[in-house]
Amino acid sequence: MEILIVEDELIAANSLAMDLKKLGFGVAGIVNTGKKAIAWVEKSPPDLILMDIMLRGKMDGIATAEAIYSRRQIPIIYLTAYADQNTITRAQTLPVYGYLVKPHRLEELKTTICMALAKFQLDKQIYEQLCKEKKANQIKGDTIFTAFHELRSHLTYILGYIEVIRDYSEKLSSEQKQKYFNYVTSAVSEITELLNKLLLISRAEEGKIPLFPTNFDLVSYWEKLIEYHQSKTDIHRIILSKYKQICRVFLDQQMVDNIGHNLLSNAIKYSPNGGVIKVNLTVEEAKNEVVLEVKDEGIGVPKEHLEKIFCPFVRGENVGNIKGHGLGLFIVKKSVDLLQGRIEVESEENKGTTFRVFLPRQLPVHHDPLQG
């Protein structure tokens, strides 16, 4: 096990080197700048790097770590004294395998390194397992790799904030601690949502999603769905126009949920300045199908992106800082297909997007459940 020390304070670097040797680790070398660290990694990659965040010179530890990660996958532990929030936030944009507060303690050094190596091995195992899942479930392109990095990003945030609370607990106010706990809770929710979506996609790809159609009123369903989403926003107004007061259908309500929630969530999310969201519900009597239309006044979809809009993990170049996984519309399309329907989309940048979903009023059965 060879460890590279990147530290511009000679005394601290030598102290680290001696302690590493006491613990039975090898010291690959000591460098004092980001440029030298990158050159070392290129020539002789170590097994782990101890990286001072506050390096002097043109490249601090975070910039150096970013350059190294673009070339090699090597676990990095940050060495840090108390840093400002901007620095901590920057550090968490990259895979983080541990923080070590200076001056370090011998036992803490050992524990942090062991945990970092364990996390790195777990990452490798997850990556390998996801590769197997990709082949087994026939999820194409870079979908599974994107999911892996998305999950690791959320886990990095969780780890970072927990370690900040642990190491700087006495220096943080109760408000700051609560804010960090809220960040962790939010990241856990993001992971749960992503895993649920990935599970649904996996089952859909395997053809293992059973349908359980029930008889329910689609108008009442949409009224409740709109009420729920309206309660989540103060800058949007969601208007429902319906062809009839009652529209009974015999469909799988979970699939309808997938369609409704994702279309409304997207309409709100991608209309960051607010506006009117129109939901039109009509019935094509001759075809015995319902037509659902959701129209927003948001950022729209670039023309060249429209043909890929239902692909997983694909998002338009104009989304900016709007959060999302790029899975919602993929799930909408899968749900529409399972209900033997079809979906259309019209969009223009900066003017909004309209989705039209055509669904049969009932899934094929041996008798007409709408007639009793």
Question: Got a strand count?
Answer: 12
What is the string of SSEs from the N terminus onward?
Answer: EHEHEHEHEHHHEHEEHEEHEE
Q: What percentage of the residues does DSSP assign to strands (E)? A: 15-25%
Mean pLDDT: 82
Q: Major sheet: order of its strands?
A: 2-1-3-4-5
Top-tier CATH class of the largest domain: Alpha Beta
Number of helices: 10
Largest sheet: 5 strands, parallel
Uncertain stretches: 138-142
Quaternary state, please? single chain
Helix content: 40-55%
Structural class based on helices, strands and sheet pairing: alpha/beta
| CATH superfamily heading of the largest domain | Response regulator
- CATH fold call of the largest domain: Rossmann fold
The second-level CATH architecture of the largest domain is 3-Layer(aba) Sandwich
Q: Could you tell me the radius of gyration in angstroms? A: 26 Å
Terminal Cα separation, in Å?
Answer: 72 Å
Silhouette? elongated
